[in-house]
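Why do we care about 3D structure at all? Because function follows from shape, and shape follows, mostly, from sequence. That is the central idea of this module. The next example makes it concrete: a single protein chain, its amino acid sequence, and then its structure expressed as tokens.
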Amino acid sequence: MDVPAVAEYARGLPGVTYVEENLFTCSQDTQDRMKEAIKRENLTRVVVAACTPRTHEPLFQETLRDAGLNKYLFEMANIRNQCSWVHSKEKEKATEKAKDLVRMAIARANLIQPLPQPSIPVNHDALVIGGGISGMTAALGLADQGFHTHLVEQSDELGGNARRLLQTWRGEDIAANIKEMVEAVTNHPRIDIYTGGTVKEASGFVGNFETTISHNGSEKTIEHGAIVVAVGAEEYQPTEYLFGQDNRIVTHLGLDDALRRGDPAVKGAGTAVFIQCVGSREPDRPYCSKVCCTHTMKSALELKKLNPDMDIYVLYRDIRTYGQREALYRKAREQGVIFIHYSVDEKPRVEKEGENISVTAKDPILGRDIKISADLLVLAAAIVPRDNESLAQLFKLPLNEDGFFMEAHAKLRPVDFATDGIFLAGMAHYPKPIEESIAQAKAAASRASVALAQDRITVEGAVSHVNQILCRGCGKCVEVCPYSAVVLEEKEAGKTVAFVHEALCKGCGACAVACPTGAASVFHYDDQEILTMVEAAFSG
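And the structure:
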């Protein structure tokens, strides 16, 4: 793409008084030059033709604000992603397309207007849903910063899945650490705990949420400014490999329970078999559960410590002891643990032969079946999401196709939801080990504190609005709004019209599309602005 040609073309377009070509428009020195040019040339609108507004528009809007302009007097033409990258082998055509994009952006910039950014007061309390390691970490992180925190846990005690785990992969005693964490949460003066509690109703927006919880047979309404969702996940209960038909066939958590209570049957086992990827990496559950391989290595080494003469076999599809966890795999090999690969098309077979458990697997090296008589069979069961649908509906939160909660952006907003003021931590997000859950919980608490620390929050101006003269109160906008930002209100003479809560609105435009009368529209993206771009596109 010929950038100088595009810049020269822009100089001749109506309304353009100043054009500058830069190598890196987003760099700090270019931002400083942009501010100087706005003041020197008395510019009232700014168009940047560069990369994607998805990542860089806020940066340029901040530059306008620093130069004394309303941030909405800015327009961006994406000539990188939509032009130079996708037409890298067609320089002349890419240049012409870039000219079209710039012409459209300038046409719209002539019509855009400054928008107000109202502010709303902030309630400084926080709500954390889930009392496992992630939830408790987030609650402590918020409470230690001075924010009163309400911690809701569905079960009757705190700790979550970690209560059943024996050790971390580094050998740390999980039970002792959980006990210490529970005591810290319980005794913290700024944390209110609601065990046996569930969320019944929810409403509001960032800084001003209102949530009703059911607790000890009664209901309580909590007002708070931010939410951390840390409801965790659970272990898949296998339907394969005769699970549930013999108490010698257990999952990882079942084995940890047995090791904790010193079950003599485990210590006295002559042969133990681990089967990996039980319920994971299947068509209905295609993801890897991430912790299973490491858990197997740690458990196998623990069994070897209890009984060095025990024969241990690990039947696996892939070993994923990533990073420093590879040392556990190497140590298991050194101590005589035998690893046998199996394919998804030829999974191990488990049968009862009298009182014996028979495990048959095809050895890919020998090319023949191997039969193992197991005294203990451990199934590395998948981590599966809880029933998150009701919570997702209450707070308008997205779930991925596997049922886990989905963040706003994996790189840019990894612990945020698309709905402002609500954050995500732990295995509610995806399967992960304890240290990653703790890190994410601390990140979620940190992000939540950004909102809670403010007395007032500025609301975006590019939001929906309803012309109440045209509105006939049909409620179509209320039905399609994914953020519950639109409500119906009764006005004078019994007329019902739609009203937009600006703090909840994300400017997605769903209401404008659904409105049969044209009463609903979005500031900064009205029909005239969009149609002007269409006309400019064809005028070339």
